[in-house]
Structures are given as structure tokens and as C-alpha cells.
Amino acid sequence: MTTSRRLVLRIALVILLAGSLLLQGFLPVLAEAVGGGYTETERLVVPYALTAIAAVACLQVCLVAGWWLLARARRGELVAPRSLRGVDAATAGMVAATVLAAAPLAHLLVVVGVGGPGVVLALVACVAGGAGLTRVLRSLRADLRCAHTTDADRLPAQASTRPSPVSLRKNGIARPRGAGPQ
């Protein structure tokens, strides 16, 4: 990845994070404006706003994990077992954000019994978008795991002697527990 692409991605991540922080500040006002005027939903404004703030916080976890993975890619450490933690954090954040965003919509439709085509469309878009992005993250995890396994298999074959345990740890490759020195 070129330096200019990394810079563009970092700028995009900063803009998205700043926008999400701004959104979190305006969500209570927005929730009051949308649901506070109706008797069926005025008691639900605060819980729905808190749920939306939590969903945005989960998306912020995804953004921070993306920043961390981008930093690892810059250092050439993306294909390492530790990188899977960042992808797992982003996946967990995406799943939690999807559930938190869909819960008020489903509650509004099923329990409260209000809403219309717009709420149904928002629910479908939320679930489909969250599921799609989660699938992309799971594919990224599988690709990183496959690349790590390929690098681990290729490393001893390229060396004239077997690598030492210190060089294996330095390259992010762990020996199985109980395996003796090579």
C-alpha cells in the first residue's frame, strides 16, 4: 500500500471518527425532535437515544481497529496472528452496532406497533448492511489467517537451517505448546 493511500485512509478515518462524535452529541436532540411529539413514543426517546449512542460507540471501535490495522500494515506486520485481534475487535463492534441499531426499530414495529414503511426499510437496511460488513470482516480474517499460515509454512523452507525460536517469535510465528527446540 502506498503512502498516499495510507494518508487518504487515515484522513477518512479521522473524518468518520469526528463525525461520529458529533453525531453522538446531537442524537438526544434528534431523538427528541423525531419521537418526542408523539404520545406513543415520547417515553421511549431516552432509551432509544442511549441505544443509538451505544451503537455509534461500537462503530467507533471499528474505526479505531481500522486505524490500528492500518498502522500494522505500514510496519509490514499485517500478516501476523496479532492482527487477527484487530479484525476480531472490528467484527465484534460491527455485530454489536447492528444489534443495537436494529433493536429500537424492531421494538418500535413489534412491541409498540407504530412505524410504517420507513421503519421497516430502515430495519432491513440496518440488518443487511451490518451483516454485509460483518461478512467482509470475516473474509478479511480468513485471508489474514491463510496468509499467516502460508508465511509460516514457507519460512523454514526458505532458510538454510531451521529458524531459532527467537526468530520465530520475532516474525510473529509461535511454536505449538510442548514442542521442543528445533
UniProtKB/TrEMBL annotation:
Residues 155-182 are annotated as: Disordered. Coiled coil: none annotated. Keywords: Membrane, Transmembrane, Transmembrane helix. Pfam families: DUF2975. The keyword Membrane applies. The chain crosses the membrane at residues 47-70, 91-112, 118-137. InterPro entries: DUF2975, TAT_signal. This is DUF2975 domain-containing protein.
